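tool=predict chain=A
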Amino acid sequence: MKGDVTGDTAEGIAGARKDDSGKAPIYRGVLSYFPAAVRGVALVSAFGATKYAWNGWCYVPDGHNRYSDGLVRHLASEAEGEVLDAESGLHHDLHAAWNALARAELRIRAEKNV
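tool=predict ok
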C-alpha cells in the first residue's frame, strides 16, 4: 500500500515524522521547565476551590481587574518581606502566578468569545 511506513527501527522507518510547527510546546516549554512552580500554582487552585468553588474564578465580575489587583497585592506583600500568604500558607509568588494565569485566561477567552 502506498505510504506504508517500512523498517524496524526508528532510524529505519521511512517517512516517520511529526509536524509540530506552530504548536505550543506545552510539556517542554512549561511543565518540564517549571514542574515545582506548576505544582505550587495547582495548590493555589485547590486552596481557592476549597474556599470558593472549582471554576468559580471565571465567573467573578470584573475578573481581569480583580485578578490584576490580587497579583499586585501578592507581589507587594512579598516585596514587604512576607514570604507566605497568611491564609493559605503558600508562597505569595505562587498566588501571583495564579492570578496572572487567571487574568490571561479571561483575556484569551474574551478574545475568542468563549
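The radius of gyration is 21 Å. The chain is about 55% helix and 0% strand.
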